[in-house]
Amino acid sequence: MYDNKIDEITKKIKLLEDELLEEFKQKEQEFFYKIENEKVKFEDRIIKDGKSKVISSIKYLSSFPIGVILTIPFIWGMMIPALLADISVTIYQYICFPVYKIPKVRRKDYVIMDRYNLFYLDKVEKINCWYCEYFNGVIAYVREVGARTEQFWCPIKHSKLLRDKHSRYDNFFDFGDYKKYREELEKRRSNFKDLKESK
């Protein structure tokens, strides 16, 4: 049985997440857009005003020192490992998760490609946004697949406080709690009930 305190904190986090969703809905009104069928629609007058403020790509790039421009090949080189991780992890979870009875991670919940189409960005900014949202989305997606795998194979917390915990970490056993580990491992490693309920 999980600690009551942890359950209580988890419930508070869920309430805060709901509150955050409400705040996002208010932002939609503040910036004059709405989401229909998973697509963002801005008011025409906002699009027109935003496009009038777009600067040229040359002007945008010339605002950076030459040293920054020279790093671009190194940045774009990182797309190769990101793409390989994306493909490899997707294959891995489709083969292994059904065997482990772990709910699959929905890639589209993590790799969200929407910013690169914003009307107030120049071409270079659009490319930069595409890169960042893909790269960081893949990292988040890979992390969630790793988190669910860790819960199945090794659901034990570290002895030190983590700077940034993944989504499954609070379900893990306390470091050194060998009694609970042996008593509840089978139950805890397969407890993804919260994921099934949220779908």
List the helices and strands and how they pair.
Layout: H1 4-30, E1 33-36, E2 39-42, H2 44-51, H3 57-62, H4 66-70, H5 72-77, H6 79-100, H7 123-153, H8 178-189, H9 193-198
Antiparallel strand pairs: 1-2
Low-confidence stretches: none
Total number of helices: 9
Helix content: 55-70%
- Specify Rg, calculated over alpha carbons: 22 Å
> Alpha-carbon distance between the termini?
24 Å
How would you characterize the largest beta sheet? 2 strands, antiparallel
Spatial shape: globular
Give the total of beta strands.
2
Structural class: mainly alpha
The mean pLDDT is 87
Q: Please, could you describe this protein's structure?
A:
This protein has 199 residues and is mostly helical. It has a domain at 65-198. Helices cover 62% and strands 4% of the residues. The protein has 9 helices and 2 strands, in the order αββαααααααα. Strands 1-2 form a two-stranded antiparallel ribbon. Strand 1 and strand 2 form a beta hairpin. The longest helix has 31 residues, at 123-153. The chain is globular, with a radius of gyration of 22 Å. 8% of the residues are buried. The model has no long low-confidence stretch (mean pLDDT 87).
